[in-house]
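Lecture notes, part 5. Sequence design as translation. It can be helpful to think of inverse folding as translation between two languages: the language of shapes and the language of residues. The source text, in structure tokens, appears below.
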């Protein structure tokens, strides 16, 4: 069963020479763990799974498992072509991962029966629990979700499609199915900038979500999650208005910014995560400036609703989290 709470999806740092930077990766994971995620999902979408070689993928998962040392479960991404997905499951198993997030296949689409066969084949490549990402070419309707209950390794579904009407039907169908796993089958909100849809998702029974903001503004992400779970609508409303909604507007200006802005934010925080890999492009300098302003605005809003002032937990360390970027990449568009 997937742990309940706020999920972390760490970045994969790269050196200026375009190699995985395991030292920065370790620092990044420790920083994430300090803010209490329920689980870590490494080498997934935010971690640029599709750009990693097989050797790099194994290195990232192995290093994450080593750094985490059992403090929280570590899930690893897998996906793409069937052969690559099955190989990733084998590598993640060998590295000691606790589970798999099955990302959509690339380019080749198919029917729901075809996708169910894909999931079953990947799941059989190992013994780890598999969370299926419903997004893009990953076709999952209500009938397919019900059939996934009978695939023992499938632990749940991560929603990234955005059709909440369909998801409401799916959650209700699963929970009322009478299947032995009906109550333990997990549903996770994995929409980009999931905080924006978190309230709506909770209303249909999807309580947990993944937060990209946790990677670069963990103070804001953690306060939002606490406010959401305690019913503090003043805090969630203010943070949505002053930070999250403007952030999504900035994110939507350029394809791939769901990752590029997160890396830019991590660099503003003082973590030298390096560049993104093609076909993604690094955030443009004016967009990085806008992100920096949004972070300051979000923290002011947080201080207002919590009564924080100078030296409070909300504002303390804010300057460090908006530090000048370090190690700006010498490739693509400098940030």
């Amino acid at each position: 069963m997937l742990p309940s709470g706020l999920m972390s999806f760490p970045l994969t740092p790269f050196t200026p020479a375009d190699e995985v930077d395991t030292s920065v990766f370790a620092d990044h994971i420790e920083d994430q763990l300090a803010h209490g995620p329920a689980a870590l999902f490494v080498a997934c979408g935010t971690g640029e799974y599709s750009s990693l070689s097989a050797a790099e993928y194994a290195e990232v998962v192995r290093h994450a498992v080593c750094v985490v040392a059992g403090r929280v479960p570590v899930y690893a991404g897998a996906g793409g072509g069937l052969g690559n997905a099955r190989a990733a499951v084998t590598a993640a198993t060998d590295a000691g991962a606790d589970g798999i997030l099955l990302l959509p296949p690339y380019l080749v689409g198919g029917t729901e029966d075809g996708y169910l066969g894909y999931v079953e084949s990947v799941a059989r490549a190992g013994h780890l629990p598999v969370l299926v990402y419903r997004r893009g070419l990953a076709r999952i309707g209500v009938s397919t979700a019900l059939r996934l209950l009978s695939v023992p390794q499938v632990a749940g579904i991560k929603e990234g499609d955005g059709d909440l009407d369909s998801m409401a039907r799916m959650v209700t169908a699963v929970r009322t199915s009478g299947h032995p796993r009906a109550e333990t089958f997990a549903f996770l909100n994995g929409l980009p900038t999931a905080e924006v849809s978190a309230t709506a998702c909770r209303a249909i029974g999807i309580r947990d979500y993944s937060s990209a903001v946790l990677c670069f503004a963990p103070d804001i992400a953690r306060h939002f999650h606490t406010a959401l779970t305690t019913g503090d609508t003043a805090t969630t409303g203010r943070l949505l208005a002053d930070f999250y909604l403007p952030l999504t507007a900035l994110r939507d200006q350029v394809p791939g910014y769901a990752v590029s802005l997160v890396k830019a934010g991590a660099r503003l925080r003082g973590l030298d995560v390096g560049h993104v890999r093609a076909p993604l492009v690094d955030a443009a300098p004016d967009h990085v400036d806008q992100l920096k302003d949004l972070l300051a605005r979000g923290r002011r809003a947080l201080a207002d609703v919590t009564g924080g002032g100078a030296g409070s937990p909300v504002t303390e360390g804010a300057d460090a989290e908006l530090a000048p970027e370090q190690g700006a990449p010498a490739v693509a568009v400098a940030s």
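The translated text above is only one of many valid answers, since several sequences can fold into similar shapes. The CA atoms of residues 250 and 287 lie 7 Å apart.
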